[in-house]
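ok so i was messing around last nite and threw this chain in just to see what happens. nothing serious, just curious
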Amino acid sequence: MPEVSPVASASPAPPAPPIPLASLLAREELGLRLVVGSPDVELHWVHTSEMADPYPYLLGGELLMTAGVQLTDPERYVDRVVAAGAAALGFGVTPVYDTVPEGLVAACARRGLPLLEVPPRTPFTAVGRAVWRLMAEARHRELRRVTEAQQSLATAAARPDPVPAVLHALASRLAGRAALYAPDGTEYAAAGRPVGPDAAAALARLVRVLGTGARPASAADTVGGAHLAAYALGGTQGLALGLASGRREPGDHTIAGVAVVLLSLLTAPHQGADEATRSAALVRLLLGAAPADVAPLLGEAPWTVVHARGEGVPPPLGTPLVDAQGGTVRALLPAGRDLAPHPGWTLGASAPADPSDLGAADLQAARTLSRARAAHLPLARHRSGGLGTLLDPDEAAAYARTLLAPLTEPLTETLRAWLSLHGNWDRTATALGVHRNTVRQRIARCAALLSMDLDDAEVRMELWFALRWL
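result:
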């Protein structure tokens, strides 16, 4: 029968993942010796007791440590320890016994309880400290694995084909198969390793279990060595996520939970007409409509163009109009949307623009981002206004083209960055991604081609105005 898990288990759980007994035995400084039993059992706790019957004080899953102070009936003692659910027994030789009692060895072998010999030089507290240290290390590995998986899933959810991307990322992280199922158990999207027919049929049954009665949150089963799990997605469509893997590791359930949330959002029907209007706007643009005619479908003008660069998951910019390709995230923010810095990212924002001026706003955002990165600012905004607004735009543009005609595009962009950063060689090199000597050579070439003294403040001012109108 599949194991259905509508709610979390109420049994006590340790604050860290269990560790295999073999990991504790591998600590050579402890000198532990496995007398009987398997080293593959998992330890959840460490408990020391010299009670004749420790049963009432055990939670299950412990390594029970004892020196046998009240060990009078080994058979009954082991029966009670096994009944309490202890994972293993550690017996300290001396001061009571010089060796592990034969009766205790026989009783543990009969009941399949792993028995360790703890040498005289190893205090019980050292064993306990080693167990907790191993559990802390396991917990750290689990948290790191979950964090990396969350980042991978979030990045996948931001791609143009988010549902297949999330399934692929999930299957890769769990080293198995991830699939979406309809309520009747029909698979219609999947990624990862294929499973055998028996496991596939069992997974479909788990999905159907989720669609019956009170609709539990998850169900699990094991078939032919494959660990199976199914999770109900949110929404009214009755979709489910099915997982199959060859092993279960700490953190798998948390990773699957993140994927469930993302897939629930990605597959849920959109409320309102936002998605429909965006699709309509795209179709009209492709069919030749003017941007000014299409823009009202996307939201109220004016618009702000934002460019961002950084590592990890793109920042939440509060807009669905995001292009995350090519290393630079570009976004279109409707009027009234606030923009704030985001840790690990650098943002550059244009001045508010009407639909007909979005091309110029995109250039503004790119240049502002370069200025922000060079100045190590988390957020920079385009500066507008000033004396430049007194000039006729057409005349200013014609003058700029004539003045800067001798310069190639790399020289023009280098001159623009250098002037915007007040002639600082290192910051300009950082903004352009080149060596500072390259910046010096290009600026010297600009001076030669323009026949101008770039150390003159008036010359710099004139060139800066020209670059603004180019």
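not much to say yet. The radius of gyration is 34 Å.
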